[in-house]
Amino acid sequence: MINVIEFFRNLPKKKCSHCGHDMLEKADCYGNLCDECDHPAR
Ligand SMILES: [Zn+2]
Question: Mind telling me which InterPro entries this protein's record contains (predicted)?
Fold first, then answer.
């Protein structure tokens, strides 16, 4: 059985492809943009 916390700790940190800020974990369907760059009003 996989330990979920260990699984996430082993993942590389995602960075926004636009501004380079570290991203919180999101579903892959959001792409590689952070909340700021992915904001619909921008
Ligand atoms: Zn960004």
Answer: YhfH-like
